[in-house]
Amino acid sequence: MSGGCSPVALAALLLTAVARAQSGVAEPGGYRTENYRSPVPATLAGARVLSTEEAAVIWRAKSGAFIDVLPRPPKPKNLPEGTVWRDQPRQDIPGSIWLPDAGYGVLAPATEDYLKRGLARASGGDHSRLLVFYCLADCWMSWNAAKRALSYGYTEVAWYPEGTDGWSFADLPLEETKPEPRPEE
63, 162 in Cβ contact below 8 A? Predict the structure, then answer.
């Protein structure tokens, strides 16, 4: 079998591809601005769509920069006075850069600047460096961020729609991470 793909892994890849193709979700012309946790399209024009196995190959070879755009959980409203709030830890693909809130359909100027600086750091300023965007399965945040990177002139953009859900399901390693700092932090 070519590419070192086991029969079980090949079957899983085919099932994932069939499920995406059957989802019937059309690729929108613009950014998704609501219902971010819902079925995603099978495509992203101008980008490669990666299976878990393909993402793992890139990760093992260290041939791309992995970028997570899952939002930070918000601080609960109406916490009693004096309550200490601690962010929930994020389990991420090792070596990733976490740019929370950078996958919304509409970005405030400060968030867009944060994304641009994060991408410049991840790519080392090389617009042809492979960037792999992800968050969770059925999450439009990574689709939006990958589409936005294409609009910024990045030419090697990949979207990993299964995100940490697919990564964890495949029993690949995860590590606790902190978000990339913002200038005001």
Answer: no
